[in-house]
Specification:
Blueprint lengths: L1 E5 L5 H14 L2 E6 L11 E5 L6 H9 L5 E3 L3 H9 L3 E3 L5 E2 L4 H16 L12 H18 L1
Parallel strand pairs: 1-2, 1-4, 2-3, 4-5
Antiparallel strand pairs: 5-6
């Protein structure tokens, strides 16, 4: 089991939680991004830089992910892609994407895209709160306890 991180948009606080978990549980964590990502020196943590381009990192994560792996992402289509491969997906706020909720999330994403295209200001995501970090850490621990 490996953890793959959609690192371009992943908050640093979440990366720090992942780095500590990798060392503690000896689970391999790979951050995938189209820009250089700094990582601590560790045999369990690495960065994979992909060429620039729309969804290049997402496609590479789907390509590399295997059943049972965990992907950290806020990107709903990426989450859907890894769920289709039998992997797990968790967003940086601690929400697990599942076969039961992913279609609803995709539909909501399409609606928001349509609203933005028509000129409606839908705003951006809220700042990551301490509660979000706690929720993420709790979900990660539950996942690792059952799968590590």
């Amino acid at each position: 089991m490996r953890i793959w991180v959609d690192a371009d948009a992943c908050p640093n606080a979440i990366k720090d939680i992942l780095f500590r978990a990798a060392e503690r549980t000896r689970v391999h964590v790979t951050l995938v991004a189209n820009q250089p990502i700094r990582t601590p020196r560790s045999q369990y943590i690495r960065a994979l830089q992909v060429p620039p381009g729309f969804d290049v990192a997402d496609h590479r994560i789907v390509e590399l992910t295997q059943a049972g792996d965990l992907v950290i992402t806020g990107d709903i289509p990426l989450a859907a892609g890894v769920l289709d491969k039998g992997a797990h997906a968790l967003d940086p706020r601690g929400e697990r994407y599942t076969r039961d909720n992913i279609h609803e999330r995709l539909a909501l994403r399409r609606l928001m895209d349509e609203l933005r295209t028509s000129g409606v200001d839908t705003g951006g995501p809220a700042t990551l709160s301490p509660g979000d970090k706690q929720a993420f850490a709790g979900q990660l621990e539950r996942f690792l306890a059952g799968n590590a």
